[in-house]
Write a structure and sequence with these properties.
With 169 residues, the protein is of the alpha+beta class. The protein has two domains: 8-46, no CATH class; 52-162, Rieske [2Fe-2S] iron-sulphur domain (Rieske Iron-sulfur Protein, 3-layer Sandwich). The protein has four helices and twelve strands; from the N terminus they run βαβααββββββββββα. The strands form four sheets. It has a four-stranded antiparallel beta sheet. The chain has a three-stranded antiparallel beta sheet with strand order 3-12-11, with helices on one face. Strands 7-8-9 form a three-stranded antiparallel beta sheet, with no helix packed on it. It is elongated. The relative contact order is 0.14. The structure holds flavin-adenine dinucleotide and FE2/S2 (inorganic) cluster. Residues 95, 97-98, 100, 114, 116-117, 119, 132-133 line the site of FE2/S2 (inorganic) cluster (FES). Residues 11-17, 34-37, 41-43, 47-48, 51 line the site of flavin-adenine dinucleotide.
Length: 169
């Protein structure tokens, strides 16, 4: 071991690799980790954690009447789920104008009207329909599986949008 600069060289910064590296380092070992993609591995990037976000985002389709909107939380991200013309849609819940929840607004046809300054958005595309709202909403795909609603929010979307979100009410 005289030529070695580290005691443990870990290939892959997934759950297993990071844990092994942490435990060894905790005992004073000199550890190096090589990762070819991103730290986190299967669990954090595409396995356990994204799956849980999908589950937490679910509600029952029967809870909705037509022209209805409900708020759900995906981590720290508020999401508005709409039923409009018999279809389900989801967008960020916070208006792009100021901090108002669109889930407190009114849905008519496929348009949601913000409760603060009556900014209007198309819930199908997120498009802003005119002043005072200019910036479109982020939209998220919705699936209905066995009567349950699943909203797919990418980790990157959750992180970038959560920064501007107010605390849960
Ligand atoms: C959809 C899904 C859902 C899951 N749900 C759960 C759950 O709810 N609960 C649970 O306990 N488990 C769950 N798992 C399993 C869990 O994610 C894995 O068991 C765990 O992530 C394995 O960890 P690991 O560190 O061994 O491998 P990984 O997390 O796969 O890490 C391997 C790392 O090595 C890197 N790598 C590979 N080759 C090289 C190389 N040559 N050089 C450098 N880096 C390299 C990869 O980029 C990767 O980051 C789920 C898996 C999936 C796919
Ligand atoms: S906060 Fe929504 S229109 Fe002003």
């Amino acid at each position: 071991m005289a030529d070695c600069e580290v005691d443990l060289f870990v290939i892959g910064a997934g759950s297993g690799g990071v844990r092994a590296a942490r435990i060894a380092a905790g005992y004073g070992a000199r550890v190096m980790v090589a990762e070819e993609y991103r730290v986190g591995g299967t669990c954090v990037i595409r396995g356990c954690v994204p799956k849980k976000l999908l589950v937490y985002a679910s509600r029952f389709a029967d809870d909705f009447e037509d022209e209805d909107v409900e708020q759900i939380w995906v981590g720290r991200l508020a999401v508005a789920v709409y039923k409009a013309n018999g279809q389900f849609y989801a967008t960020q819940d916070v208006c792009t104008h100021e901090h108002a929840y669109l889930s407190d607004g009114v849905v008519v046809d496929c348009i949601v009207e913000c409760p603060f300054h009556q900014g209007r958005f198309d819930v199908r595309t997120g498009a802003a329909m005119g002043a005072p709202v200019i910036v479109p909403l982020q939209t998220f795909p919705v699936q209905v599986v066995d009567g349950r609603l699943f909203v797919r929010v990418l980790r990157e979307q959750m992180e970038s949008l959560s920064e501007t979100m107010p605390r849960p009410r």
